[in-house]
Amino acid sequence: MYRTPVGAPAAALAGTLVLTFGCSRPPVASGGLADDTPGQTASGLAWLAATQEDDGHWDVARNEGTGGDAAATGLAVMAFYAHGQREEHCQHARAVARGVRWIVASQSDSGRIGAHDDDARAHAICGAALCVAYGATVSEQTEEAAARAVAYSCSIQNPDQGGWSRSAGGQSTLAATQWFLIQRKLATMTGLDVPESALDGVRSFIDKVTIAQGQGLGTCMNAPGGPITPEATASGLFCWQLMGRERTDPVLIAAADYLMAHPPVWEEGRIDFAHWYIGAHATYQMGGQHWKKWNAALRDILIGHMRTDGQLSGSWDPGDPDRCSGGRVYSTAMAEMSFGLYHRFFTSTLFYYKTGPAPVR
What we know:
The protein is mainly α. About 55% of the residues lie in helices and about 0% in strands. Helix 3 runs parallel beside helix 13, helix 10 packs across helix 11 and helix 11 packs parallel to helix 14 (about 340-350). Residues about 1-30 and about 345-360 have low confidence and may be disordered.
């Protein structure tokens, strides 16, 4: 049985879990990505299912990528969950079940997932996928693997800088920290033990990369001393939201205003599926014109650039290799997560505790 976190509104939480982890598409207000794109959603999930390897993982190298397979596999599994697919009684149940089994089997004794992947974000992504899988199935084996993944994540948090980095002992970055915070929040929702003490260091790190006053209020840099960018600002805004900061906070409003001047665009060197996805989370939580503008731009991009030809039908071109080392699996999984209801899952439940229900769009 699902274990309700202390202080969570049980009725709202239970309803969200049923809608998110069941096979039925939950009713959402009009104007969202998922409402307008049933054909794209079905095609994207079908492409992911067709390209899965027999042992359950997705092979990045066979799909125009150069990175590791763990992160792509974790994202693909979460893409299915984002559309209500789970490990039984659903169209893509077999793909989901095989993907989860591969993630569990690839976990080392230390708790790390993707030990052959130099990017620690792969572990956080797979750990998040395990938390979602546990919330959907309440499997003891998945629970144990998810708990071990959380414990490993806590063990590699940078004790001096407070955040997380791509490699052990490296510079903490927002790009890495955001995925560990997502994993942490999902773990908390599913009742797994997550130390609260880790949050003090995270707050300190995000403070250091956020402009808190004066010109550039709310904008962020990926690491202390780095340049201010839309990508880092979207990550910082979402991290602050995951940490429980109110959406009425002037710093968060300023960050969202800055993002409105940098909406998603399909241009060489600016195709960034992870940034678009995180931005969708952050602006949806802010609501109003912030969400409407981001959603409209992203919807048009994803609908307009999904491949419809041959074996690539249902997928998205990965774009800039520096931004998408996971290749076509990564780009397609991230696009499907943006199309899906995963960010409604976050906003309707995770943010409920601090800010009330998500704003009406």
